[in-house]
Amino acid sequence: MFVITGATGNIGSKLVDDLHSRGHKVRAVGRSKDRLQRFIDKGAEAAAGDLADSGFLAKAFSNADAVFAMIPPNYAVKDFRAYQNEIGASTAEAIRKSGVKHVVNLSSQGANLPDRTGPIKGLHDQEERLNKLDNVNVLHVRPTYFMENLLMYVPMIKNMDMAGSAVSGGVKFAMIATKDIAKFIAERLVKRDFSGKSVRDILGQRDVSMNEAIQIFGKKINKPGLKYVQFSYEDAEKGLIGAGLSEDLSRLYVEMSRALNEGLFAVNLTRTPENTTETSIEEFADVFAKIYLSG
Questions:
Q1: Between the CA atoms of 230, 234, 240 and 243, what dihedral angle is there, to the nearest 10 degrees?
Q2: pLDDT tens figures, 130-155
Q3: Which residues are within 8 A (CB) of 185 and not within 5 positions of it... i.e. 6 or more apart?
Q4: Residues 6-47: pLDDT tens digits?
């Protein structure tokens, strides 16, 4: 039995589908039973509840051969770091109570740093929290910047005929497709080829700049002159708030953008066959175009 938290998200949903398709028993964990129904329809178990409730989570983790643990995003909370700590502590306590022996924890590039990384700081704290658990094998998977994050530019391109954020257009950094993250994690859950407390980086197919990514997308959606614009940190924060994010999370995202611009994470990393994944930005452009053209 494999237990997947955040089962309705980009990574979790792919994990449930992957493991179930291989014939494994899967328990999908999420906040909404309605959103979990599609997994139930396929024969998976589901556990709907509050991730801040360690008792609920401990029950969900019971009899698991391995657990995929993550702190799902919550864009509306007023204090995002407090939210991360609450869910993180609940998850750690549930792992301890349930007696599960193998946990794959979704972390991030930059989680090795103690500060200046915005929301990634919460993942640094969670790594340290889980590392304190006795008799549990924990693998911290540190993927890089999700290609799916670039989908936030769809409405901007439609409304303003441009894309932009606080990230510098010229900085090349590692990007990865979430399907490659899910594939990697599924293998780790099935093989359970890790012991003690360990870290694995996964860096995508190659480093890409925002300028390059938007040019590739522009050609795919028949906008060959599409440009990427770097916003000031102040304007970027206002834009995120205007898009519906809380003031606190908007501030944290801008801090993360600044860290990326300064090369604190995801930049100039050493690539190996083990940390390089398959999907290129050109392949992901097909996903971007499908979503852009469907609206």
A1: -100
A2: 999 999 999 999 999 999 999 999 99
A3: 11, 15, 68, 104, 106, 141
A4: 999 999 999 999 999 999 999 999 999 999 999 999 999 999
The single residue listed with the structure tokens 């770097």 is 230
Lay out the sheet containing 207-208: strands in order across. Answer: 145-146, 173-176, 207-208
To 10 degrees, the CA torsion angle through 42, 47, 50, 51?
A: -90
